[in-house]
Amino acid sequence: MMREQKNNFLQEMALSSMKRLVKNKANKSEEDLLRICEGIKRKPPLEFQSGFIFITEIKKTSPSLGEISKPEFNLFEQAETYVNNGSNVISVLTEPSKFSGSLQDLNDISKTFSGTPTMRKDFLVEPYQVSEAFVNGAGGVLLILAMLTGSMLRMMIERAIKHEMFVLLEAFDEEDIQLAKTIISEFSPYSLNILLGVNCRDLRTLNINFSRFENLSSLIPEDVICIAESGITRPSEIEFISKLGYSGALIGTALMQSETPDQLLKEMMAASSEK
After folding, report:
1. What is the pLDDT of residue 53?
2. Residue 136: what pLDDT?
3. pLDDT given at position 2
4. Catalytic status, residue 23
5. Catalytic residue among 126, 132, 229, 237
6. Is 170 a catalytic residue?
7. What is the reported pLDDT for 208?
8. 3-class secondary structure per residue, the chain
9. Residue 97 in contact with residue 84, Cβ under 8 Å?
């Protein structure tokens, strides 16, 4: 079940996700989906190396900015830019109504760039959608803590572990981080594949508060890989969050809008080591 939400963007997305889920289940039962999963050769579990982690994102549109991608945008060329310049993970939006994403995008990127892990980024509400991600080549999924009850969150993580996928738990506030700490401790044998993300954009309001990275940094457990998400546009900001103790960053809009995303990514990578 979903965590109860007030009338906000996150609630809207959760309901939209549930509608897609119902439609997809009508076309393919969970039993059939899991049978397909069993026939897929699993990739070796992702091991995040020491050093700053760059999760680069394919995002065509957003509810806050509208069209993000340039007129000449090419899905494969953008992903290739990320891969050729050292991206650790490619995040692919699969939400169609507000972000113009699709599972087909995820499938295409995962197949074409099989040497780089992909992550399904969406407003996932049930384990079925984790298995969908796996079938379409994802090595991991993002789960939004504020959307999910504790019991549903645990079931979705269990499904990801079954598929040997990593999980990025997205937090907005102190309550989310405390929940993440509890969850990660419960799954301690697999905790290296459970990452914590701090999003400075509150998806309940769509407002960005960059100071959230600093305000919540003291709550981050030392033994947990923590990713800074949203609002990161310049190399100096990478240097800043690195000094705060974050282990990586998820970067989408800045790279999608840049005329020279390869150069920007290189500059951000250089800044991550300037502690």
Report:
1. 94
2. 97
3. 55
4. no
5. 229
6. yes
7. 85
8. CECCCCCCHHHHHHHHHHHHHHHHHHHCCHHHHHHHHHCCCCCCCCCCCCCCEEEEEECCEECCCEECCCCCCCHHHHHHHHHHCCCCEEEEECCCCCCCCCHHHHHHHHHHCCCCCEEEECCCCCHHHHHHHHHCCCCEEEEEHHHECHHHHHHHHHHHHHCCCEEEEEECCHHHHHHHHHHHHHCHHHHHHEEEEEECEECCCCEECCCHHHHHHCCCCCCCCEEEECCCCCHHHHHHHHHHCCCEEEECHHHHHCCCHHHHHHHHHHHHCCC
9. no
The answer to whether 174 is a known catalytic residue is no
Task: Reply yes or no on whether 121 is catalytic.
Answer: yes
Those residues of the chain that have pLDDT short of 50 are none
Question: Is 70 marked active-site?
Answer: no
Residues 59 and 252: their CA atoms lie apart, in Å, by 6
All residues at 6 or more sequence positions from 153 whose CB lies less than 8 Å from its CB, including other chains? 143, 145, 179, 183
- Pick the catalytic residue from 91, 107, 136, 230: 230
Residue range 31-86, pLDDT digits in tens: 999 999 999 987 766 777 678 999 999 999 887 777 877 677 899 999 999 999 99
Structure tokens at 240: 């800043």
Domain 54-272 has CATH 1.10.3720.10: no
Taking CA atoms, 11 is separated from 7, 163, 263, in Å, by: 6, 28, 37
Distances (CA, A) of 93 to 22, 100, 111, 141: 19, 8, 16, 11
Catalytic residue chosen out of the listed positions 87, 110, 121, 237 = 121
- Token reading at 187: 């799954």
Contact 54, 248 (CB under 8 A): yes
